[in-house]
């Protein structure tokens, strides 16, 4: 096959050829980055959370009575709620919690050793550590394990406004602040560390080694913000228990709005709903680009039927076989695909860099690019085959006719 002849033929249609090359490059870039986004989202959703999401129910409510502005009254109702919910069938543990795992924002603050403020600059995640105000049994409810020290003492809750409250922190936070030194008994700006528990996913966007959290043993009694109850329930009783929650809570005190009842599995899925939606959008764009590129490849190959009939006839008259003509047209497309794949590397990187400024996305790799190239190559070759086959049917006698 004469490469120079192929290039010369393409240059005769340089504008159409350039558009097809650009389409191929854009398609490759979109396919690769869409695949990366889908794989990233799937990996995040399958990531181990560090707690038993399949056994957790959440109910969110908001007081509507002015009586709840009395903190003592509010806490008395809270304790009655927990007792009532604990008696429901299948419930093994109930805790109140100011915010949920697997979320962005919320009750966050900086956490440092008092004598090391520079840590906040070295590790920016230390500026956004979730603060959890919860019942003393929250670790049992979530299914977290005690790594070192002790858990909270039920008889003596530690309020956040105390001068030196007791705190429990996650293992990764202890490692970040104290290295190989024990964190137990150490003072941080949040209080004294009395215990260390296993890591769990607080902010999914953070690396596994930076899932920081600080726990206080405090029953929050703030009437203007939603109250969360977290229930650990036998999996087969989840739906039955969920149906009983509203009546159980309103029987304790009716002047409250039950905002929502949902499982931790639903909470987990909803957190990634936007990511899945973005993946779906890019997938649709990829399919459309593949279709448009296939149609363009088909139209480009049709040129041989309508514009090069006499030239093809001359080649047939000079001894070219139908197989030679078929291969010639296909080789033109393969050369265009090769050129598009070279430009596609730059387009792929440009799209990836652009997306990385808006979302967390992994870098492209060779295997994904090769897989995308194969998809584009096969779809383009299939769309080109029919016009190439029609071109091969041009008889030698066409060379003697006037086009």
From TrEMBL:
Residues 285-392 form the ABC3 transporter permease C-terminal domain. Signal peptide: none annotated. The keyword Hydrolase does not apply. The chain crosses the membrane at residues 278-305, 325-354, 366-386. It is found in: Cell membrane. Keywords: Cell membrane, Membrane, Transmembrane, Transmembrane helix. Its main location: membrane. Residues 24-201 form the MacB-like periplasmic core domain. The keyword Membrane applies. It holds the Pfam family MacB_PCD. It is a multi-pass membrane protein. Belongs to the ABC-4 integral membrane protein family. PANTHER family: ABC TRANSPORTER PERMEASE YTRF, MEMBRANE COMPONENT OF TRANSPORTER-RELATED. This is ABC transporter permease. It comes from Neiella holothuriorum.
């Amino acid at each position: 096959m004469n490469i120079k002849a192929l290039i010369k033929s393409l240059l005769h249609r340089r504008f159409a050829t350039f558009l097809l090359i650009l389409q191929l490059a854009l398609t490759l870039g979109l396919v690769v980055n869409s695949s990366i986004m889908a794989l990233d989202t799937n990996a995040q959703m399958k990531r181990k959370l560090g707690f038993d999401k399949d056994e957790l129910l959440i109910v969110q409510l908001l007081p509507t009575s002015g009586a709840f502005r009395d903190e003592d009254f509010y806490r008395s109702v809270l304790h009655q709620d927990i007792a009532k919910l604990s008696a429901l069938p299948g419930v093994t543990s109930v805790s109140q919690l100011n915010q949920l795992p697997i979320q962005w924002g919320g009750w966050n603050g900086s956490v440092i050793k008092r004598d090391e403020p520079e840590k906040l600059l070295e590790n920016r995640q230390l500026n956004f550590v979730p603060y959890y105000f919860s019942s003393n049994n929250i670790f049992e409810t979530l299914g977290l394990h005690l790594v070192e020290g002790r858990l909270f003492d039920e008889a003596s809750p530690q309020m956040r406004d105390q001068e030196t409250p007791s705190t429990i922190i996650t293992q990764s936070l202890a490692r970040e602040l104290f290295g190989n030194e024990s964190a137990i008994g150490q003072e941080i700006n949040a209080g004294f560390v009395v215990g260390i528990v296993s890591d769990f996913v607080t902010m999914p966007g953070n690396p596994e080694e930076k899932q920081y959290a600080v726990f206080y043993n405090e029953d929050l009694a703030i009437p203007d913000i939603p109250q969360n109850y977290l229930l650990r329930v036998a999996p087969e009783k989840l739906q039955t228990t969920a149906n009983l929650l509203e009546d159980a809570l309103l029987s304790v005190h009716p002047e409250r709005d039950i905002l929502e009842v949902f499982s931790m599995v639903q909470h987990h899925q909803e957190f990634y709903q936007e990511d899945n939606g973005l993946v779906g959008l890019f997938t649709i764009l990829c399919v459309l680009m593949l279709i448009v590129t296939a149609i363009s490849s088909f139209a480009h190959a049709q040129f041989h039927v309508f514009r090069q009939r006499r030239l093809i006839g001359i080649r047939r008259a000079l001894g070219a076989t139908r197989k030679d003509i078929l291969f010639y047209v296909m080789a033109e497309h393969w050369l265009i695909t090769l050129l598009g794949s070279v430009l596609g590397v730059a387009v792929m990187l440009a799209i990836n860099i652009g997306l990385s400024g808006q979302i967390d996305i992994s870098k492209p790799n060779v295997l994904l690019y090769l897989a995308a190239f194969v998809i584009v190559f096969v779809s383009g070759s299939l769309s080109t085959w029919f016009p190439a086959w029609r071109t091969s049917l041009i008889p030698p006698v066409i060379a003697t006719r006037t086009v």
